[in-house]
Structure formats: structure tokens, C-alpha cells
Amino acid sequence: MKKFKFEITITEQDVEGDEFWEQAIERDGSGIAELTDAIAHAIDDSNLLINSDNDAKDVIKLVSFSDS
After folding, report:
1. Which pTM does this prediction carry?
2. Rounded distance, CA 65 to CA 12, Å?
3. pLDDT tens per residue across span 45-67
4. How many angstroms separate the first and last alpha carbons of the chain?
5. Tens of pLDDT along 24-50?
6. 34, 40 in Cβ contact below 8 A?
7. In principle, which of 2, 11, 21, 44 could form an S-S bond with 15, CB 3.0–4.6 Å?
8. Which one-letter DSSP state was computed for residue 59?
9. Helix axes 19-28, 32-46, angle to 10 degrees
10. Calpha distance 9→26 (Å, rounded)
11. Is 24 helix (H, G, I), strand (E, B) or coil?
12. What span, in angstroms and rounded, lies between the C-alpha atoms of 53 and 10?
């Protein structure tokens, strides 16, 4: 079975000033929950996992977070 792993790196500089980001920070202080939801929605909207037993949120894993 083939298994694909991708890494997405988003910095605060990439999203700062955006209304989405301002709301994301208000939700949990880090923006992680909102970014995870946005990525999951993109996967769901593409129907990429239409035949999978997993939901998009099941296949997304935060690997690291730093606030420096």
C-alpha cells in the first residue's frame, strides 16, 4: 500500500493581517484549531478522501509548533 506524507509550513508572517487569522487567534490563542479546520475543509471540498473511512481531520497531524 502506498502512503503519502506531506508537510505544510505556515508562518505567522504568511497569514498576519488577514481577517481569517485575527479570528483564528481569538479562537484558541495560537490559530492552530482554525488552520487545521481550514486545511480539513480544503481536503473535504476536493473530495480527495471520498472513498476513505477517514475524515480529513483524521489525516491531519500537527508535527510541531513554536512561538519564538
Report:
1. 0.83
2. 11
3. 999 999 999 999 999 999 999 98
4. 39
5. 999 999 999 999 999 999 999 999 999
6. no
7. 21
8. H
9. 120
10. 21
11. helix
12. 28
The residue written with cell numbers 492552530 in the block is 32
Nearest to 62 by CA among 16, 8, 4, 14: 8
Domain ranges of the chain: 23-50
Cα atoms found within 13 Å of the Cα of residue 35, Cβ hemisphere only: 21
pLDDT, residue 51, reads: 94
**What whole-number distance in Å separates Cα of residue 23 and Cα of residue 16?**
11
> Measured between alpha carbons, how far is 37 from 53 in angstroms, rounded to an integer?
18
The pLDDT value given to residue 46? 96
Cell for 68?
Answer: 519564538
Give the number of residues written for the chain: 68
